[in-house]
Amino acid sequence: MRVNPRLLNRRSAPEMRSPQFGGSMAWRAADLRDDEWRLALPGPVITELGAVVDKVRGATVPAVALRPEDFLLPATRQFMAKVRSRLREGRGFVVLNGLPVREWAGAGSTLAYWLLSGLVARPVAQKLDGTLVSDVHDTGLQATPGSGVRPDKTSIEQYFHNDNAYNRGQPEFVGLLCLQSAVEGGRSGVASIRAVHNDLLRQHPAALARLYQPFLFDRQKEHAAGEPGAVSAPIFASDKGELKMRMGLYRLLNAYRLPGKRARRGRRAGHRTAQGSAGRSWPVPQLHDGSGRHPVCEQPGHLPSPHCVHRSSGA
User: CB pairs under 8 A, 24+ apart, for 228-234?
Assistant: First the structure.
């Protein structure tokens, strides 16, 4: 794992004395067996979901107004209980294959995806306006600081990140649905945050200590009027044996380029700093996505990943 030495501020970030995080979620790519994380949707599940898609086809009710409780779906409930167990007690991520997205078209696939997601956990809004399902595609816009344009609306490569890393509260699960394979690129990957944390603890404890201290994240205009345009939070946080990570490289770097967050040269430590909202100066980080990536989502699938960070290349 590479760590840029400019990330470090040894005066303000003493070396960590933190436990390593073990268990099935502290994995590396070589540890994984396909049957642990890749699951095919069984025939009865496809049949149940297909019947729902046919039933509501042409209806004016949007998918997000429906709930799994509106339908019987016995096989689907049983299967998704297995998926939820893999997320909470297994490797922490799952890829589901076999959803007939071309046959069901956009609206039908969205409905099936919505129902599957609702059997994992209660869906929450992704945006201030209450958006629950958001399309990922290149709009031609640029994700510049303070623009409110998300990187997933552009063609830029997204480094390992958590979705909604810039929000005050992060979702427990994240689901992705592949509707169409990219002409080129479009490869995605996941990495275990426990493995990343453990590597940093062994190899770069001073850098890890800095990651437990606050950074700024551009909120991308997802905040009420009068609130600050950046949120301050650490990248790593742990409590009662649980490890959480908040990572979004573009949001993080853009926050330090917002008005009022001008970078300046540190007088003593010789590093670039930016003035945070609390009046403290922090090094402007230049991070690299590390090792341990594992390609997934190269075909239609549904990926909830509560204990991982994931990445995707521009398509």
Answer: 228/277, 229/146, 229/255, 229/258, 230/255, 230/258, 230/261, 230/277, 231/166, 231/167, 231/168, 232/276, 232/277, 232/278
Domains assigned to the chain: 5-312 (3.60.130.10)
Total number of residues shown for the chain: 315
Stretch among 107-111, 268-272, 307-311 having the lowest mean pLDDT: 268-272
Type of residue at 190: V
Inter-CA distances, 249 with 161, 283, 300, Å: 7, 14, 26
Helix (H) or strand (E) holding 111, with range, is: helix 101-118
Closest to 178 measured CA to CA, from 305, 297, 46: 297
Split at pLDDT 50, 70, 90, the class of 290 is very low
Average pLDDT over residues 97-102: 92
Cα angle 290, 294, 298; round to 5:
130
Pair of tokens at residue 54? 């046919």
Under DSSP, the state recorded for 302 is B
Token code pair at residue 131: 């958006």
Cα(97)–Cα(269) distance, integer angstroms:
51
